Give the backbone structure.
Amino acid sequence: MTIAVLRFPGTNNENDVLRALSMIDGANPILVPSRKGLAGLEEVDAIVIPGGFSYGDYLRAGAVASVETITEGVRDLAEDGKPVLGICNGFQILTEMGLLPGVLLPNKSARFICKWVYLKISDHPTMFTEGIEGSIIRVPIAHAEGNYYCSEEERESLRDELRIPFQYCSASGELDLAFNPNGSLDNIAGIINQKGNVLGMMPHPERASRPVLGSSDGLAILENFVRATK
Amino acid sequence: MTLINEGKVKRVLQDPNSSERVIIEFTDKVTAGDGEKKEEFTGKGAVACEMSNYLFGYLEGKGIDTHYVKKLTDNQLLCKKVTIYPVEVVCRNKAAGSFCRRYGTKKGIEFSEPLVEFFVKDDAFHDPLITAGAINRLGLVNRQDLEFLRSVALSVNYYLRELLQQRKLILVDFKLEFGRTEKGYIVIADEISPDSMRIWDSSSTSMDKDVFREDKGDLIATYQKVFEEIKKAKPQDVGPRIERMQVIVEPKSGIKNPPGEVTKKALERLGFADVHEVRMGKIFTISLKRPITSEILNQLAIMNVKLLSNPISENHKVRIES
């Protein structure tokens, strides 16, 4: 199954994602530079938008990339129900595109945060969390704009429709403000769209996909993503 | 044809072919001093009409929106139907007329930059000067629209002045009226002729209605002469004026603004203890090589929502630089 790993000018996590995906059976990840436009997404079964600083985070993180031609192809694939995963800057691009609700504001501390965090995975099954529902995983974050915010209306529908698979928590799974690294509403670390095939998350599962990296907790998310492309 | 409105020197008639158009008829009357001095000169309507036709066409060619559609007869223009703003916009390059009377200024003093003044159209009060603040408070024109009227006046000033300069003519000042079309576009209305502007030749001799105001010669001959000169100028040699708009994007109230908060803390460290709050946003300065129009402001509103700001967390406002 062909998985397009997009690279915008300023994306810098594409190799990490390509390497992590290539270790998974059945995955055929390919690098697609955004300049290829819609042609780059022909014959593609799924898309990952990796992290980095597309267009230098100018304007707002993800804003300039979100209006590139290739994003129309991302939108079409998402509408077809194919899996789309946005990690870090990829999540920011998906919200700027309007494929996911809300916006990622500057961190509450106004600082770039690079550290390991714990995530509580929702009990509710999703395409991306099969087999790890309800568990706690350890993954790294690295961002300056990860403070998730949305309108009260959106917040309610995210809750009611069980579309919050990942929340920042303590090692034992407490969902307290003390374990919220960036000020995100409801400790939100990742959300899915209504159809359930588009996931945006600030933490980096690809950086926690092998024991040598310090954790392989993120691998399950990528494995589920690959499985969903079949 | 139905008469819609009759002014001192012009009549506005309903175009029988379209409800969205009117016919403006230029009469031979000339008035000054709020109608105190009046007379009729055969052919004055025709020359004022012909000049308005020429200058509206010139300004349209430079990208400025006017109510002008085409010339119908010697003294009739076909125009878009507009709702006229009750404010006259005057742009001055040199001191003359009511400006000198108001401040006792010597006639002909050059301003360091063009001055835009507003007058409220009210015969009973002799069309008094009015401030922008009073216009807003009286609900005559809102703040944004008034800013736009000012920018169009300065734009017209540039294009007319450059054209006249080619023939060594000096644009001293002029008056514009504005209207809103049915589509909501703001356009220049009324007329552009020596009735509504002061033009001097290189020896500061009046080539406009001041000839009549001050009984200084043959009005018709003067109008014809200045028009002949203007027609010799080359519109294509007048280059575009750079116009600028600023989009100010701010975090919505209630949205935490960490960049502003750390800036405030830094200011406190520097001893500025009275700073209550700092909110940091962005300013985009967008320049155009053409005049700003209602259509461009509409496009800018779309730009704001689509890219420049994120409506979930940010507010935006537009300022026209003038």
In short: Chain A has one domain: 2-229. Chain A has a mean pLDDT of 97.
